[in-house]
Amino acid sequence: MRRARLIGMSPVLEPNPQNGRRKLGLVFGAMMLVTVVIAIIATIASP
Q1: Residues 17 and 23: beta-carbon distance below 8 Å
Q2: In angstroms, rounded to a whole number, what is the distance separating the alpha carbons of residues 8 and 19?
Q3: Which value, to the nearest 10 degrees, does the dihedral of the CA atoms of residues 24, 28, 29, 35 take?
Q4: What is the pTM of this model?
């Protein structure tokens, strides 16, 4: 029953992604940038 639902769906992760490490680095860098920006804003806003 569970397998029937998965057949029509495309895989979440590609088996052989092109530029996989670069994409992972960009995502990780974006996450870190957002965290740093939030930390800076919180530091400035704190009394």
Answers
A1: yes
A2: 26
A3: 170
A4: 0.57
**Cα torsion angle, 35, 36, 39, 40, sign:** negative
- Tell me, what's the pLDDT at 15? 73
pLDDT in 10s for each residue of the chain, 47 residues:
555 555 555 666 667 778 888 889 999 999 999 999 999 999 999 87
Supply the DSSP string of 12-31, one letter for each residue: SS-SS-TTHHHHHHHHHHHH
Q: How many helices (H) and strands (E) does the chain have?
A: 2, 0
Which residue, chain included where needed, has tokens 């704190």? 46
The C-alpha atoms of residue 44 and residue 33 are separated, in whole angstroms, by: 17
